[in-house]
Design brief:
Neutral Protease, domain 2, Serine Threonine Protein Phosphatase 5, Tetratricopeptide repeat, 5-stranded mixed β-sheet
């Protein structure tokens, strides 16, 4: 009995006098940095709170976190004065200062789940049109990956290539060689203004593309390799406008031709060769081919497994860090070999080698998108490469300018027949002559064929919207005008189309937006 009482007494003393709760264990700056490397932003912020205030390297971890947040002043203030940066963070003070200098005079606008920054002037118009793409993409990726960052994501539009290179830290030769116009880095989106390309570029899809990178990095704990990242972003970049069932992925004609040729010649770029970045590939052609390859690889996975299977691959990758192992597990493959299996599948696809499509060169140039060619008198790469086609086209231009539309049309038709390659500029010239003759439906058919071959040739899309409005097809006119703005928002023509539509329909808010945009373009764009 005494032994029992003694035992109970021991239990009572032990349970009634617990050791004082010491709270969570202290953390180190390296813990915070590792979490940021895995894009675990919320966990990194919580872990920073557990780093002792007297830790001499705490400031580096805080500076890195603030840099990821896009608060460059706070990042600079957090850097420990007089201390050598921690291992692997020697770059941080340089990048913080570069970001501060580039964005010093930028304006900032918070809209829903994003913070937009841009230089004063014409880039201010980008925000109103970016909202639709990014909010739509946020919803699409939340459905696919279950990731929807609570903290607003910073999107910075850089007005020129120098600022883009300075802020991003990308080697200038990468940007120039592959025409890299946007990256997702440090949990932010860094984007070159479409003003820097003559016809703009698909900048709204590009925003959506970079957002895929951001959420995929978070969902995979930043373990997804470059081929999986870029393939996913390419396939999903248009999902913001396609609703809950985006459908099968389709390559543009030139990319499809390039891929078919590489497959035939056994000259595909390996997934390993794409590391560390598509921007590091030796040419724009190689980069385009690589994008086509990895897009079809992800398309293959989605066709085989659906969105649920794709998500399981990402979740497994986050757990053990190996996407190929995750693919094998989810697909039920034994012994790996996904890249070979994808190649075999690709070889069975009905890829077309089109003999009438050339790759149109794109060069980066300040204010290039602000140059007008309202009558399609300039030449494209196809016309420039073929002298007879070019000469006949110029004769047609002279006749059209003098009002001899049927004679002009004959010369344009002769030009088109002189070479096998389709010229989108020549198609536009033909369409203008046809429209002038009252044959608007025929003109629209010519343009539709042209845009099917060169879907990103902005002048054709813009002309389609104008002709549709002239023909009284308001719905098509509005859709094509929005499509044109998604390529080159700095051309006033599609905004004029929209303003006309909204004015006639009494859509006052939308009309006011277009009037404001046109005013900005007139003031800063030189139109």
């Amino acid at each position: 009995m005494k032994r029992l009482l003694l035992f109970l007494l021991v239990i009572t003393v032990t349970t009634s006098s617990p050791v004082a709760d010491a709270g969570p264990a202290p953390a180190t700056p390296s813990d915070v940095i590792r979490l940021l490397g895995a894009t675990r932003m919320e966990a990194a912020a919580a872990t920073l709170e557990r780093v002792p205030a007297d830790d001499p390297d705490r400031g580096f971890a805080e500076a890195l976190l603030q840099f990821h947040y896009g608060d460059y002043d706070a990042a600079k203030a957090a850097l420990p004065a007089g201390r050598t940066p921690m291992k692997d963070l020697a770059w941080l003070p340089v990048r913080i200062e570069a970001a501060r200098l580039v964005t010093a005079d930028y304006l900032e606008r918070r809209e829903q789940n994003f913070i937009y920054r841009f230089s004063p002037g014409v880039d201010a118009i980008l925000v109103d049109y970016a909202i639709e793409a990014l909010e739509g993409q946020r919803a699409a990726m939340a459905r696919v990956l279950g990731v929807a960052p609570e903290r607003p994501i910073v999107v910075e539009f850089y007005s020129n290539v120098l600022d883009f290179v300075t802020a991003s830290g990308l080697p200038p030769e990468w940007v120039k060689t592959t025409n890299t116009v946007a990256i997702c880095k440090w949990d932010r989106m860094l984007v070159l203004s479409p003003m820097n390309m003559a016809r703009g570029y698909p900048w709204k899809d590009t925003l959506a593309h970079e957002y895929v990178h951001l959420v995929l990095s978070r969902a995979s704990a930043n373990h997804a390799p470059i081929w999986f990242q870029e393939g996913s972003a390419k396939v999903m970049e248009s999902w913001w406008r396609k609703g809950p069932k985006p459908g099968a992925f389709a390559l543009d004609p030139w990319s499809e031709t390039s891929l078919a040729k590489a497959l035939e010649k056994n000259s595909l770029i390996t997934f390993d060769a794409m590391h560390p970045s598509m921007a590091a590939l030796p040419s724009a052609e190689d980069a385009s081919l690589a994008f086509a390859e990895v897009a079809t690889a992800i398309d293959f996975l989605l066709r085989e497994l659906g969105e649920e299977g794709y998500r399981r691959i990402v979740e497994q990758t986050a757990l053990h860090g190996d996407v190929m192992r995750a693919v094998d597990e989810v697909m039920g493959l034994a012994g790996g070999g996904f890249e070979k299996r994808w190649t075999r599948w690709l070889a069975k696809q009905p890829l077309q080698q089109r003999t009438n499509v050339l790759r149109l060169k794109e060069t980066l140039e300040v204010n290039a998108a602000g140059k007008a060619d309202s009558e399609d008198e300039e030449l494209d790469d196809v016309l420039l490469a073929h002298r007879e086609m070019q000469d006949l086209s110029r004769i047609g231009d002279m006749l059209r300018q003098r009002g001899h539309l049927r004679a002009a049309l004959i010369e344009y038709q002769r030009a088109a027949a002189s070479e096998p390659y389709h010229s989108p500029k020549l198609a536009n010239k033909q369409a203008r002559a046809l429209a002038g003759l009252g044959e608007v439906a025929f003109a629209q058919d010519v343009l539709q064929e042209s845009v099917s071959l060169y879907p990103e040739f902005t002048p054709t899309v813009t002309l389609l919207s104008q002709l549709a409005l002239d023909a009284g097809d308001v719905r098509t006119a509005e859709l094509e005008a929005w499509r044109a703005i998604g390529l080159n928002p700095f051309d006033p023509a599609p905004h004029i189309v929209l303003a006309s539509i909204y004015d006639a329909a009494g859509r006052t808010d939308e009309l006011q937006r277009e009037k404001t945009v046109l005013s900005v373009l007139k003031t800063y764009g030189g139109w």
